[in-house]
Amino acid sequence: MKRKIGNIVYRGIVILLALVFFFPLFWTLTMSFKEREDIFTTEPPLFPSVWTLDNFREVFSTSGAAQFFRNSFLVSVLTTVLVVILSTTCAFGLQRMAGRGSERLSNSILMLRMIPVMVLTIPLYLIFRQFGWINSLAALTMCYVALSLPLAIWLCLGFYGGIPASIYEAAVMDGASEFQLFKSIGLPLISNSIVVVVLQTFFFAWNELALAMVLINKTENRTMAVGIKYWAGNTLETPFARMAAAGMVCIIPTIVITVFAQNYLVKGFVNGAVKG
Hints:
The protein is an all-alpha fold. The chain has 13 helices and no strands.
């Protein structure tokens, strides 16, 4: 009986927390379909009195959201591809290295991830201004790759650590080179787990705001996050409905990717947590 009551209480708490975290997303969704009269009122209704798609039309027709969306998607995809390539190769080399030097180097790489992004904005701006790379999506991609690599390498180290050493030893006895070990054994065995690196890298590049605001000044090169921020600050009346519509468009890729990759995501975290 006590166990049954405990399960009911546990489920009730989980449902309550889910509702608390879901409500801001629900409010943003309904706001994106509201007219101005439903927003600028003392008692905003939970649902729109009149459902409208004008906010979405305005986002794509006059606000430049389509270009911002393309910029964000391009930067996020390039960042993810480069991070996956570099992290899988670097982590494999560190995992295959023997001795304390490898462990210290691995810990040092992870410590780089602890540096706040805001601390790096001014130095990075000065560096890229010296090279004339301000307002360059390539420069923004380079920054995101550098910031994402430490955590990605650390995750891949955990994935490679779950592969029994006997598999490598058997391949070496058959005359396999280190590159063959990486290509034919290491990479295929952690392929499911790499989804974790893909998701965390893509989401970071897609949602990042501080560096994008500092390095990108031209309107045509802005990312989606920067575009939404400027809509809030460049008008006399904050366009809440338009910002909500842009926010819903902005989270579509993350939701789609997460839904299709959730099974691989769980497997990746489990594999990364187990070292054999």
